[in-house]
Amino acid sequence: MRMKCLITGLAAAGGVSAAVAVVATSYSTEPVLPTLAEAGVWEPAPLTPPRFVEGPSYRLARTRPGSAPDFRPPFLPAVVRNDAPLTAIEPPLITWSRKMARGETLDAVLAEAGLAATDRAEIALAIDAEYDLRRLRPGHAITVISTTDGSPRNVTLVVEEGIRIEALFGEQLATRVVAPEPEIVTLAGETRIETSIFGALDDAGIPARFAVDLAQMLGGTVDFRRELSGGETLRLLWREARVANKAVRQPEISFAALDLGDALYEIAWPEDGTGKATIYLDGEVLRVFSQPVEGARLTSVFGRRKHPVFGNVRMHTGVDFAAARGTPVRATAPGSIAFIGWRGGYGRVVEIAHGADTLTRYAHLSAVPEGLAEGQRVSAGDTIGRIGATGTATGPNLHYEVRVDGRPTDPLSDDRLAEAAGRATPDTAALTRLRAARARLEEQLASVIAANPNERL
User: Fold this and answer.
1) Beta bridge partners of 239
2) CA-based angle 51:55:59, to the nearest 5?
3) So what's the pLDDT on residue 282?
4) CB of 214 closer than 8 Å to CB of 198
5) Is 301 helix (H, G, I), strand (E, B) or coil?
6) Fewer CB atoms inside 10 A, N or C side of the chain?
7) CB-based burial, 321-335: b 16+ in 10 Å, e otherwise
8) What are the E-state strand segments in 124-251?
9) Which residues share a beta bridge with 243?
C-alpha cells in the first residue's frame, strides 16, 4: 500500500514539473523590448593606453664618504638644519656679601653664607694658596655667589690695597688674584706744631704715621723734646695710591721741611725706589740716610722692653720694622757683606761691614738675593734680603741692628752710617734734588690754597 502511494506521489510531481516547463517555454518565445535588447548587447569602449612623455632623467650619484645622498623629490620644500647648540639655561644665582669682624675666621663667614663644610674647606685651601689666611683682618670683604641649592659658583676675598682673591667653581676649582691699577695722587700739607709732631699731623689731617719717618731721619740730630717748644712749622709732600678715590696702601712721604726758627731741616726722599733719603740743614747737605725698608712701620725702638715672645724684660738691641712678607730689605750704607746665614733667634741674617768698627745686621729675613755672597761690595739702597719671620718672631718684620766695636747702638741716633752714605753722594746732584722738591711742594700747596681759598692746610 505504501509503495503504491509513493509511486503515485512521484508521478504527480513529474506532471507538475512538465507543466512548469511548458509555461516557461511559451513565455520565452515572446518578443523582447528593443531597449532591453540594446542594453543586453552594450559593452564599454576599450581603454586608451597611457601616453609616455619624455622628461628629465635621474641617476644616483656616488657620494663622498661621510655624506648621505639626497633622495628628496624636487617638489618637496627643503628642510633647514640648525646645528647651533641650544642656549644653556643658567640657574638663578644668589649674591651674599659682608665684611669680616674682629676675631672671625674665613670658615665661620662662609658657614654664615650657607656653604657646606666640604665646600668651605676646599675654598679655604684654594684661597690660602694665594693669600696667607693668617693675615685676615677686620674690614676684609667676602662675597659669595651661589645657586639656590647652596652650590658655590664664585667666592671673592677683598684684602688690602684693593686686591681680590677669587675662587672660581667650574669643572675644577681655580683661583686668581686681581690687583687693580691704582692712581698715584700727590698731596701737600702745612701745619704748626704746638705739642708734638704726631699731634700736629693728626690735627691737620695729614697721615700721622709720617711722624715715625721724621723721627727716624732726624732722631739723632734734633731733640724733639727740647727743641720743639711750640710754633714750629712743618710742611710735607707725599703720594697716595688710590682706587676709586680710596687709598689702597700706606702713603709715601717724598719731602718734608721742618722750620725751627733758627734752623731749617729738609728731607728729600727718592722716587727711584732705593729708599735713600738726603737730609739738608739750611740748604746744605747734612747727611744721606737709606731706610732699610721703604714705607715700613717702626714697631719697636732701641732699649729695654718686654719681649713679645718670652714675656720678660730684656734689652732690645735694634729697631723693628713691620712690613708684608717679601718686602725688599736694603742696605742702609755702603759696605761689604760680612755674613750670610742663621743666628739662633735672629733667624736668617745678613750682616754688612762699614769700615773696621761698624756693622749692620738685618734679621728675620725670608730670603736672600741669589748671587749675594760674603765679601761682596754693596751700595746704600741695594736689596740684600726680603722681609720674613724666621727665628724668634711674632710676624713678618725686620730686626735692624747697628753694632760699633761689637756693641749695639741706637740705629736712629748713630751718625757713622749717615756719614758713610753721605760720602758716596755728590753734593751737586743732592742740591738739584732739593730745588726740585721745593718747587713741587710750593706748586702743590698753591693748588690746595686755590681749591680751598678759605682754608690753608
Assistant:
1) 186, 252
2) 125
3) 92
4) no
5) coil
6) N
7) bbbeeebbbbbbbbb
8) 141-147, 152-158, 164-168, 174-178, 183-193, 232-243, 246-247
9) 246
Helix (H, G, I), strand (E, B) or coil at 418: helix
The number of residues making up the chain comes to 457
Give the model's pLDDT for residue 385.
Answer: 93
The distance of Cα 249 from the centroid of its chain, to the nearest Å, equals 15
Blockwise average pLDDT, block size 10, the chain, 457 residues:
54 53 49 61 67 57 55 58 68 88 91 91 89 89 89 89 86 85 89 89 89 74 79 92 79 91 89 72 82 71 58 69 87 88 90 85 92 90 90 84 82 57 63 90 82 52
Instruction: Look up cell 753721605; give the residue.
Output: 422
Pairing of strands 183-193, 232-243: antiparallel
- What is the distance, to the nearest Å, from the Cα of residue 265 to the centroid of all Cα atoms in its chain? 42
Q: What is the DSSP letter of 62?
A: P
Closest C-alpha among 213, 278, 270, 232 to residue 423: 278
Phi-psi region of 162 (alpha: psi -120 to 50; beta: other; left: phi over 0): left
Distances in whole angstroms, Cα of residue 27 to Cα of each of 8, 169, 302: 30, 109, 159
Contact 190, 234 (CB under 8 A): yes
d(CA 449, CA 455): 7
- CA-based max dimension of the chain: 186
Per-residue pLDDT at 457: 42
Residue 291: closest CA among 390, 199, 398:
398
Which residues pair with residue 233 across a beta bridge?
192, 259
CA 66 vs CA 62, 63, 69, 70, 72: distances in Å: 12, 8, 10, 13, 18
Sort residue 371 into left (φ over 0), alpha (ψ -120 to 50) or beta. left
CA terminus-to-terminus distance, the chain: 166
Q: Which residues contact 233 (CB under 8 A, 6 or more apart)?
A: 190, 191, 192, 193, 257, 258, 259
Cα-atom radius of gyration of the chain, to the nearest Å?
Answer: 51
How many whole angstroms separate alpha carbon 275 and alpha carbon 382? 9
Q: Report the pLDDT value the prediction gives residue 86, as an integer from 0 to 100.
A: 67
For residue 280 the three cell numbers come to 739738608
Residue whose cell numbers read 682706587: 243
Grid cell in block for residue 270: 727718592
Measuring CA to CA, how many Å separate 75 from each of 61, 71, 78, 229, 307?
Answer: 19, 12, 9, 107, 98
- Nearest C-alpha neighbor of 400 from the set 210, 173, 195, 216: 216
φ, ψ (nearest 5 deg) of residue 15: -65, -40
Asked if 142 and 110 count as a contact pair (C-beta separation under 8 A), the reply is: yes
Predicted TM-score (pTM) of this structure: 0.51
